[in-house]
Amino acid sequence: MAVQSRTVQNKRDANGALTGKSGTVYDVNIKYNTPEGKKSYAKRGFATKKEATQHEAEMKVKLSNPSYSPVQSALGKMTVKEYMVEWLEIYGKVNLRPSTFESYKGIVRNHIDPNIGHVQLRDVTPAMLDDIFKKMYDKGLSQTSVRNTHRVLGVAFEGARKYRYIEHNPARDVLTKFGQPGKTPDPYTVQQMQQLMGHVSGTEWEFPVMLGGMYGLRMSEILGLRWQNVDMEKGTFAVVEQLPFRLPAGTTIVEQMAAVKGKGADNAGERVLPITDATRPYFERHILLQARQREHTANGCGTYYENNIVVAKANGAPHRRDQVSSNFGQMLRRSGFPYIRFHDLRHTAATNMHQLTGDFFTVGMILGHSLKGAGIQLGISTKLDAVTAQYVDVRLERKKEVLDAYHKVLHPKPKDEKQPKKPKKKSNDIEL
To answer: What are 300-347's pLDDT values in tens digits?
Structure first.
């Protein structure tokens, strides 16, 4: 008989927790033929005979297919905690950005391990996961926190299913209804960006806000930009590295920058952006500012740390991302500006460039996004799945045209400024 019952002294409930009471559980044992000979399949511990019988029927159909590969029962016995360590090491370090990797580790440590870390991988049920989400809601955690936990569980268990550690992904069958995540602040309009640029003019916020709100650079890219990647003579700068994640407090020297998330499709394989006529004065003023800071530090007998970083502290040491983010929010509150995160300056640049030019491809190139990423940034469904891993090859001239369209709107010429007279057209000129 393929389904057999047995008595256990400590039966588990629907959530996988031990009840301390004896009871009957059901085991499924199936013998089947393969090209290599006879094999057997077993899964033990079903709470009801109905569940065991249903599983038996499903597995008989699957095992009759020669191409089907049953789960590796021995690996399914590892605990969720053991598997999550393995999964983060194999999947996380390769596929996730450092900040996302740390976020996943925190979710596993705070929400997954304490609740189901002791449960064998093969015994995890949707009901157990729903119980995790209920506990998180009961603690007053946000929709975003619960949703992110479900996402981590879903991706992790899908990996286990593909590796044939488990038969099904339990995260797919949860009953919890996830509410809408908190609304992302609206990006600033052109007029609001003009007001913000006017407010930060002449302060140390001027240059980082310009790079974030006018070019759409990520904060880590801004804080990791070095002068060696800025060419004032050619009028370009390359976004090829970023500040390492979670820089320790008190760091004064950065030995090596981290690689950026994505690169452009220029011939050099770099994301090269033009310094426009509107932004060149910002670069020039910032060069003078750093020269004064270096001189003041030397005159005060202090130490100036030569990291060659464009946006650095007065002594040349690197900024920390969390501190910049916090200070930016405080600056906006004190100044009466609508709340946005520093990262929303990137959304602002993307939205305004796209609204002014409609050039989806070039905006994505400037941002350093794939087509899919640019579509998400702008709220556009591209349906270009076949090319989401590629970048559109956009020449520097076109990037400059798109950036100029945005930067000139932010810096309109005064009305009383005299425009140079156009030369009279000769009779043999060809009008294009």
So the answer is: 878 999 999 999 999 999 999 999 999 999 999 999 999 999 999 999
Residues 153 and 88: beta-carbon distance below 8 Å: no
Q: Is the CB of residue 369 less than 8 Å from the CB of residue 204?
A: no
Beta bridge mates, 251? none
Query: Taking Cα atoms as reference points, which of 41, 78, 83 lies closest to residue 62?
Result: 41
Length of the chain: 432
Task: Let me know the angle formed at the C-alpha of 386 by 238 and 380, rounded to the nearest 5 degrees.
Answer: 70
Q: How confident is the model at residue 15 (pLDDT cuts 50, 70, 90)?
A: low
Is residue 272 within 8 A of residue 400, CB to CB? The reply is no
Give the bridge partners for 39, in sequence order: 32
Helices (H) and strands (E) in the chain, counts: 17, 8
CB 252 within 8 A of CB 309: no
Q: What is the chain's alpha carbon radius of gyration, rounded to the nearest angstrom? A: 29
Q: For the chain, which domains are there? A: 3-70 (no CATH), 80-173 (1.10.150.130), 190-410 (1.10.443.10)
H/E element, 43: strand 37-46
pLDDT value for 34: 77
- 307 φ/ψ angles, rounded to the nearest 5 degrees: -90, -10
Closest listed residue to residue 15, CA positions, set 144, 155, 118, 87: 118
What is the rounded CA–CA span in Å between residue 423 and residue 208?
40
- Take residue 308 and report the two structure tokens written for it: 């060659």
Contacts of 264 (CB under 8 A, 6+ apart): 270, 271, 272, 365, 368, 391, 394
Q: What does the alpha-carbon distance between residue 430 and residue 432 come to, in Å, rounded to a whole number? A: 6
Nearest one of 110, 120, 113 to 18, comparing CA atoms = 120
Q: Provide DSSP, 189-204.
A: PHHHHHHHHHHHTTST
Distances (CA, A) of 211 to 135, 278, 367: 42, 12, 11
Q: What is the DSSP string of 125-158?
A: -HHHHHHHHHHHHHTT--HHHHHHHHHHHHHHHH
